[in-house]
Amino acid sequence: MAAYKPVVVQACPKLGERITQDTLYWRGYKTPVQIKEFGAVNKIDFSPVPPYNYAVTASSRIHIYGRYSQEPIKTFSRFRDAAYCATYRDDGRLLVAGSEDGGIRLFDISGKAPLRQFEGHAKPVHVVGFLSDKYRVFSGGDDYSSNLWDIPSATEIISYSEHTDYVRCGCASKVNADVFITGSYDHTVKLFDARTKSSVMTIEHGHPVESVLLFPSGGLLVSAGGRYVKVWDVLKGGQLLVSLKNHHKTVTCLCLNSSGQRLLSGSLDRHVKIYSTTSYKVVHSFNYATSILSLALSPEDETIVVGMTNGVLNVKHRKPEEKNEKSQKKRQPAYRTYVKGRTYMPKQEDFCVSKPVKRVLRKYDKLLRSFQSSKALDAVLEPPIMLHTPEVTVAVMQELHRRGTLRSALAGRDEKQVNLLLTFVARRVIEPRFTPVLVTVADMITDIYQPVVGQSAIVDKQFLKLQEAIGKEIDYQEELLEVLGMMDTLFATFTKKRDTCLEENKSNGLTEIIETNRNY
Predict the structure, then answer these.
(1) Cβ-contact 192, 185 below 8 angstroms
(2) Residue 483 included in any domain
């Protein structure tokens, strides 16, 4: 009796993901830690000084977390309503935040009660921050105004009312202590100089502006609003350098890494995109569970923190670099011990004994070997095999069809099993690699279970899905044939024109030769 040959599963080439240095780097973060906040996280800000704690603004509280802590190490809760945009000063000793009631509060990190309170906005203040001189605070509110405040005297220095809609984002220049920028829902980004009474530059973004970011050099400005992230050259009067449209929904937050070579953007489409600041192409992407409202990267790029609309804080820490210390292992035999005799060539009088290789058969192969066709088909209709390796299921169906036992294996099934079969066929019949086999399977199933159509609503629904899938595929094929016919016509026209041009060139060349001979 001949030995059983296992089922040959057709292998299809897979398109592998392109692995780059950025892919390896950004994959080097650990499994995220999930922290639940009291409300949507509208701002995350890292302290610029070690140990790089970070402030999380959510609901009516500001929580201070340590780098590796999962519980807040400090809480500021002196807000009657929602708090917004808690931001550290450059020395990490003070924290400023806006609020729903229009007030601005300044906190000392080592205390609890506000050091200063700035009153002047008539509506909620969504954006606050320190100027680089550390003694002034800028703010923007829903009353369309952008204000500048003096910390020692707790008084308003100047108020700008140039925006015509809510002011929801802003940043300060690290190079010039008098310059700060605000973005508004009126689609504009305005650059203010504290020494002047009006804005010195206005940039039209084209969509409600959700976030702005100034490069450390102060020469480039990034604005985010709608699905667009735009980069502007401030030194050239606000010239647009590049417009990026890689998100599917509104972009809500921006962030730079410590070197300024990578730009991160978060969006309501649940993705964080990472761009190279030299080519402005996406080099990596993170996927999250829900829409993203805020994003921050620690000063040493060791931690990525993302705040989401459902109040969940997602924290990823970078894996520590492995030390190249040689562990004391038990000494293994030398390499020559393993390869001894490998190169020996048998002589003519030697008798060679071959060691049989034991084959491990899979479950469906064992069942096929014992001619249990129905059970073999059941074995490959299990959800893990159907979902992840459908080529195995199709290969067994093809083998049963070759043996002539496919019809008997498909027959005699109950409602649940028929539903499973039809689900698989309807989903995979449109794939070109499976179509020849699954069309035959679908034909047999229709012939076998046609008498029971109308007795089960579940089976009838699956038959309708199969009919719809095949109908759509036929329509696609007809459209493709029409396009192919159009292309053939175009190519034929181009070929005729080319042949005509060649004939004209040849006749012109021949006429020129005759005229030249006559002249001679």
Answers:
(1) no
(2) no
**CA atoms of 311 and 207, how far apart (whole Å):** 26
504 pLDDT band, cuts 50/70/90, is low
Last residue of a domain, one of 260, 289, 317: 317
CB-CB contact of 258 with 301 (8 Å):
yes
Write out the residue range of the structural domain in which residue 402 sits.
363-473
Residue finishing a domain among 317, 345, 371 = 317
Is pLDDT above 70 for 111? yes
Check: CB of residue 430 under 8 Å from CB of residue 473: yes
303 plus 444 within the same structural domain: no
pTM over 0.90: no
Q: How far apart are CA 301 and CA 26, in angstroms?
A: 10
With beta carbons less than 8 A apart as the criterion, state whether 383 and 30 touch: no
Q: How many domains does the chain have?
A: 2
Cα–Cα distances in angstroms (integers) from residue 264 to residues 87, 133, 165, 199, 315, in the given order? 19, 27, 26, 28, 15
Phi–psi pair at 211, nearest 5 degrees: -155, 145
- Report which of residues 340 and 126 the model is more confident about: 126
Q: 457-519 and 415-428 are packed helices; what angle lies between their axes, rounded to 10 degrees?
A: 10
Cis before 51 (ω within 30): yes
Residue 250 lies in a domain: yes
CB count within 10 Å of CB 16 equals 6
pLDDT tens digits, 420-474: 999 999 999 988 889 999 999 999 999 998 888 888 888 889 899 989 988 998 9
Mean pLDDT for all residues in the chain: 88
- Whether the pLDDT of residue 293 is over 70: the answer is yes
Q: Give the CATH number of the domain where residue 246 resides.
A: 2.130.10.10
| CA distance readout (Å), 104 to 95, 125, 129, 158, 269 | 11, 7, 10, 15, 31
Tens-place pLDDT, residues 200-236: 999 999 999 999 999 999 899 999 999 999 999 999 9
Cα 229 to its chain centre, rounded Å, is 16
- Any idea what DSSP says for residue 512? H
Helix 415-428 to helix 390-403 angle (10° resolution) is 110
Same domain, 281 and 175: yes
Q: Is residue 355 part of a domain?
A: no
Phi, psi (rounded to 5 degrees) for 279: -105, -15
**Within a domain: 326:** no
Higher pLDDT, 169 or 499: 169
Domain co-membership, 45 together with 152: yes
Q: What is the pLDDT of residue 327?
A: 47
Classify residue 343 as left (phi > 0), alpha (psi -120 to 50) or beta.
Answer: alpha
Residues 313 and 390 occupy one common structural domain: no
Residue 96 sits at the vertex; the CA angle it makes with 46 and 293, to the nearest 5 degrees, is: 55
